[in-house]
Design goal:
Elements (H helix, E strand, L loop, with lengths): L1 H15 L10 E4 L6 E4 L4 E3 L5 E3 L10 E4 L6 E4 L4 E2 L5 E2 L4 E5 L2 E5 L3 E4 L5 E4 L8 E4 L6 E4 L4 E2 L6 E2 L4 E5 L2 E5 L3 E4 L4 E4 L7 E4 L7 E2 L4 E2 L5 E2 L4 E4 L5 E4 L4 E2 L6 E2 L4 E4 L6 E4 L3 E4 L4 E4 L9 E5 L2 E5 L4 E2 L5 E2 L4 E5 L2 E5 L4 E2 L5 E2 L4 E4 L5 E4 L3 E4 L4 E4 L7 E4 L3 E4 L3 E4 L4 E4 L9 E4 L6 E4 L3 E4 L5 E3 L3 E4 L5 E4 L3 E4 L4 E4 L14 E4 L6 E4 L4 E2 L5 E2 L4 E4 L5 E4 L7 E4 L3 E4 L5 E3 L11 E2 L3 E3 L5 E3 L5
Parallel strand pairs: 19-21, 31-33, 43-45, 51-53
Antiparallel strand pairs: 1-2, 3-4, 5-6, 7-8, 9-10, 11-12, 13-14, 15-16, 17-18, 19-20, 21-22, 23-24, 25-26, 27-28, 29-30, 31-32, 33-34, 35-36, 37-38, 39-40, 41-42, 43-44, 45-46, 47-48, 49-50, 51-52, 53-54, 55-56, 57-58, 59-60, 61-62, 63-64, 65-66, 67-68
Length: 601
Amino acid sequence: MLIYFIILIFIKFCLLIPSCKEGEKNCIFCNPITKLCVECDKDIYSPDENGGCKLKSQCKLGHNSCLQCAPNENICVNCDLGFYPDKIGGCSYTVHCSISYKGTCLKCDDDYVLIGKEVTYCKSINTEDLKNCKEVNTVNGLCKNCTEGYYLNSLDKKCSKTENCSESLYGICNKCSNGYYLDKREEKCKIQNGTFNHCKLSINGEICDECDNDYYFDEEKKCIGINFCAIGNSEYNCKKCFDGYYLSEFKDSCTKTPNCYEGNKKIGVCMKCNGGFYIDFKDGKCKSNKEHDEFSFCNTADNGVCNSCIYGFTLGKDSKCSSTKYCEESEYGVCVQCIEKYYLGLDKKCSNIENCIYTNDFEECEECKDNYYYNRGKWRCEISSGIFTGCKNGFDRCSSCKNNYYLNQTDLLCYSNEEEGPFYKCAMTDFNAIYCADCIEGYNLGEKDHKCTLLEGCRLVNEENKCVECSQDYCLDSKNGVCKRNYMVISEEEKIYFRCQRTNEEGTGCQICSYGYNLTEVGLCADIEHCIEKNEEGVCQRCQNDENHHYCLNHDFGCIESPYDDCLECGNILDFDKCTKCKEGYELGNFDLCYEIENNK
């Protein structure tokens, strides 16, 4: 009996001896003699009497963002804005946090998991995307492993009962991984083969009900690539259509309509025609919008009547397209009659300003009829008389003058520039009206005498009466001091002036090109802005060609705007509208123009 009692005392005494292990129970240093922890790994813990660490209360008013402490429980019950009470008397940035340190959550409440590294938050394990999840990725908050009998989706990282599923809702698969289709009858993802090649969904498991993207049903409810395509490639581009169908400009659809730019892939109906054609929804055909006045610049028509115009044109009350807003009737895109309370100017634009002959893009009058000037303050053309006789635009004074008048910048009135003298052919004086500051178009201002002299295309001349600066559409020949036209090629010898702003001192090549053009190694100016394909040396190989602008490739000058959308290359520098290479489906014919190949018609 005594021995039994001694054994009981020994067991009880041993159980009361503290047990401390470094790295366990949040302890980082143990006293080897007392077996008690003397240092814990976080400030929120303190050593306890059992050799481990316990949470220490940290609720102090104003400490750790706490606004109110519970008097008996010594925990925080009200925190600063953006903070939430935790369960150890502090405040956390994160809601549903049970342990935090200086606002950063260290442990979440039950049924919540801590997500993130530098910025953390507590996420419920009962959310839809974590249903049936066994292990959560603590970095992104998505499921990492599913419970037994469930599979992790490759796309949305949710758990589904269905293998090879990429999307699911509450464990039910609604989309399979690539190469599989969903059999709704068996709720399984099955491999795509045979009848179900490129199938996405089968409701009864016997026929396909939905194809993969870019695939469509044929007559047997099988999924094929581009509808009505006879020969295609792996990029879903068609090379040849079935007999009776035409390849669209996009090369991704076959339609029953020639000259089609974009077709409906499923039913082979044209949705948009090539440039120069409009689609008539009455018969679904692309018809030329250049052959008849009523369809000039038309984009779509219904029952033989134009109902929309190409970009830059508006539909008038006569169902014709005009480049002018507020137009009621037009012929071949040119307005001949405006709507009520609008007036037709010499520029064929409609303006609500009576007696105006030229308007700008902001619907302001640029020039009134003879014997009228534009009063900007009243937005109308008024009769020119008295001090406003030579005025072109103005308010209480003139801001610009008519031809044969110059603007005096001291009194802002217009005076005749027809008489010989310091203001002969002058457009505007200096601010003190001592000398001429600018000449009318076609005349040039001397650098020294500030007088206007006649020199074609020149804006400024020097003492030797040689041009030093040219007007727009002219190039300065630096060697001879004259201006040459730069918007067209006149001869083989003068091609260096094409789109050039200034030549070199020897006059053998261009030195500065016009805006949008780049200088080549041989001293010519080439348009590379509209180039869409270059070789390894940076030389243009193909130019832009869309419904609004057509460019052909010229090996001297790059991309040249062409009136023909079927020409790819033009090589004659003296006649850019003569084609040397046509686009696919066309061939060169008479007058160096492109004609559609008979087999494609």
